[in-house]
């Protein structure tokens, strides 16, 4: 994740690159898949 002011750019994992307003993000956590951590983003 890259924080760009009020925007958050989510990079990598199994998702394509996404950009969201920081205020839309409710929970940021991670899960392990094949010994690699992947971000889990929950939007409100």
Percentage of residues in DSSP E strands = over 45%
Order of helices and strands: EEEEE
Structural class: mainly beta
Q: Give the strand order of the largest sheet, numbering strands 1, 2, ... along the chain.
A: 1-2-3
Largest beta-sheet details:
3 strands, antiparallel
Secondary structure: helix percent:
under 10%
Mean pLDDT, to the nearest integer, reads 85
Q: Calculate Rg over CA atoms.
A: 11 Å
Assembly of the depicted chains: single chain
Distance between the termini: 18 Å
Secondary structure tally, helices: 0
Instruction: Give a count of the beta strands, DSSP E runs of length 2 or more.
Output: 5
Q: Which residue ranges are poorly predicted, with pLDDT under 50 across at least 5 consecutive positions?
A: none
Overall body shape: globular
Characterization of the model:
The protein has strands at residues 2-4, 7-10, 18-21, 25-33, 36-43. With 44 residues, the chain is mainly beta. The strands form two sheets. A three-stranded antiparallel sheet has the order 1-2-3, with no helix packed on it. It has a two-stranded antiparallel ribbon with strand order 4-5. A hairpin with a 7-residue loop joins strand 2 and strand 3 (18-21).
Can you summarize this structure?
With 44 residues, this protein is mostly beta strands. The protein has no helices and 5 strands.
């Amino acid at each position: 994740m890259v924080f760009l002011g009020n925007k958050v750019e989510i990079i990598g994992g199994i998702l394509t690159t996404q950009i969201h307003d920081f205020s839309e993000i409710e929970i940021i956590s991670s899960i392990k898949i094949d010994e690699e951590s992947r971000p889990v983003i929950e939007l409100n």
